[in-house]
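Page 42, continued from yesterday. The earlier attempt failed because a stray header line got pasted into the input along with the sequence. Redoing it now with the clean sequence only.
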Amino acid sequence: MAIDEIIKNRIKSLIEMHASGLAYPDEGMGGHALQERQNNREGWCAAALNIVYQFCPNPESAYRKRAEIITSRYTGGEIDYDQVGELRCLLTYLLEDADSGALVALADRVAAETFDSFLEHAKEYLQSGNKNESGVIAGVIFEDSLRRICNKHGIKEKGENLDHLISTLVKQDIFPPTKAKRARACAHVRTKAAHAQWDEFDAADVKSTIEFIDELIALHLAD
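This time it went through. Structure tokens are written below.
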């Protein structure tokens, strides 16, 4: 599955999650139930902002700027249902633009810039102490690289998760077990960054992911 399709599917899932009560008023709620809803809102908003960053890496993107304005209003405070609704509406329009071709596909940007130059963004973020942003970019490139390697060797990758693909690469003697272990560590970063679970990986994990991607490109995708 191409990078932009992966991201569009994630946007769709976030829009569907929105319907689970996150945008309903809190009247009559209290205690644990209210706190749980607030926690779910915070997680959902973080994931929504994360996916906008993935599809719109340009800081000047109108979608990115608007998402940052919406989320900045609840920094250090509680998130109300209006803010969740605003972000949901933003994701809906972003998805429509992506489906219509109004946005340049992320995969096309990767091809235009080449893997090496796109990886530079991840390296620069990491060097400047922004491991979350670096993890997002590195995770997306890792998954795309792995799927490209599978395609190159005739391995069906569409609809398959990363762990299955890694196991298949081992079975076909494309990856040795030691490389598979490193690939699964990178897949962990990919998953956690995609779901805005920032505490589940650290800068060292991102650094290892970037180094492994460099190896994959040199050994499997350079020709």
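Notes: The chain has nine helices and no strands.
Reminder to self: strip header lines before submitting.
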